[in-house]
Amino acid sequence: MRKHDEVVGLVWGTAVGDSLGLPAEGISPLTIKKLGWHDNWKHRFVCGKGMLSDDTEHTHQLEPYFHDSI
Q1: Which among 58, 48, 53, 49 has a CA at the least distance from the CA of 26?
Q2: At a CB cut-off of 8 Å and minimum separation 6, what does 4 contact?
């Protein structure tokens, strides 16, 4: 059960990190500051809610292989 929990944690951690960082993907720190996001971080996708990218989708697709490898 412990290894299963580690894989689940890996997938959830990837999803959360992906969602939090996605609004600024490909944007330089200087541009973020110019846009006024440095203290006003919010998601600007799908009705102001966060979303996931292909990074999370790919991790989810690989999840069975993570289970098989541990």
Answers
A1: 53
A2: 67
